[in-house]
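Readers of this paper often ask what the protein records in our data store actually look like. The remainder of this section carries one protein's record, kept here as part of the documentation.

:::
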Amino acid sequence: MSSTLMPTPDRPHPDLIADLPLLRAHLEEHRRFRLDQLAGIAAAGNHRHADDDRPRDPADADADTARGEVSLALEVAARQALADIDAALERIHAGRYGTCLTCRAPIPLDRLRIVPQTAHCHDCQRWKEKPR
C-alpha cells in the first residue's frame, strides 16, 4: 500500500485536504455569526441599562431579571462557540485540523462537515461528555 495515501498527523487524509477550503469558509461564516450575535446581545444590554432610572412594576423587574439571565446564558454559549471556532481555525493554520486532540486519530470527514469546529473524534467526545 502506498504511504502517500495514508493519513498521518503531519499529512491529513486527501479528502480532508480537498474539503479544507469549504470547511474553513463554514468556520469563518460561523465566526461572523457569533460576533454579530455577541454585538446584538451587548446592544440589547446597553438598551436595558438606559431605562434603569424609570420606576418599575415588580412583575417587570422579574421579567427583566429573567431576560438578563437568558441573555447571559446566550452570551456565555456564544463566547464558547466563538472560542471553539477560533481554535479550529488555528488548528487549520497550524496543520493539525482534523486530528482528535485526545487520541490523535483522524476525525472522520463526515463529522467535520457536520461540526467543523470539533476537536475530538466521536468516541472521545462521548467520553469527554460522559457524566462522572
